[in-house]
Design goal:
Elements (H helix, E strand, L loop, with lengths): L7 H13 L67 H7 L2 H24 L5
Length: 125
């Protein structure tokens, strides 16, 4: 269970906005260093924390990771992004940044829409 106090809907919207603004593009200062989806954005509970003081199971994204991959070093890279089960891990191995960003953006839009629909349903008493 995630212990991140932030709202998952806002996290996902911020991540989508970050990517749409070119967030994972190569840095001008360090163009040789690739960026890592989720890890190199404010979505990560350990962003800018070189000590990684929070375990990944405290992150909201862990709820989207299949149980067999929740113990991975970077579990959010094993979130199934589409019906065929592609993950960030798979797409990073292909070394196709544009495809990876498309898949992540599609996944984010789908999750955002699902959460918004879920929250707009009237509460059952």
């Amino acid at each position: 269970m995630a212990k991140d106090e932030r709202d998952i809907l806002e996290i996902l919207k911020d991540e989508l906005n970050f990517i749409e603004q070119g967030g994972y593009g190569r840095s001008v200062r360090t163009p040789w260093q690739p960026k890592s989806a989720f890890q190199d954005s404010l979505t990560c509970i350990n962003y800018a924390d070189s000590e990684h003081t929070h375990p990944c199971n405290e992150c909201h994204l862990i709820d989207f990771v299949t149980s067999e991959h929740q113990g991975e070093v970077i579990p959010c890279h094993f979130i199934p992004l589409n019906e065929s089960g592609e993950t960030i891990e798979d797409l990073e191995l292909e070394d196709n940044e544009a495809k990876l960003e498309r898949r992540v953006k599609d996944w984010l839009r789908t999750r955002i829409r699902q959460i918004e629909e879920e929250r707009s349903k009237p509460a059952v008493a």
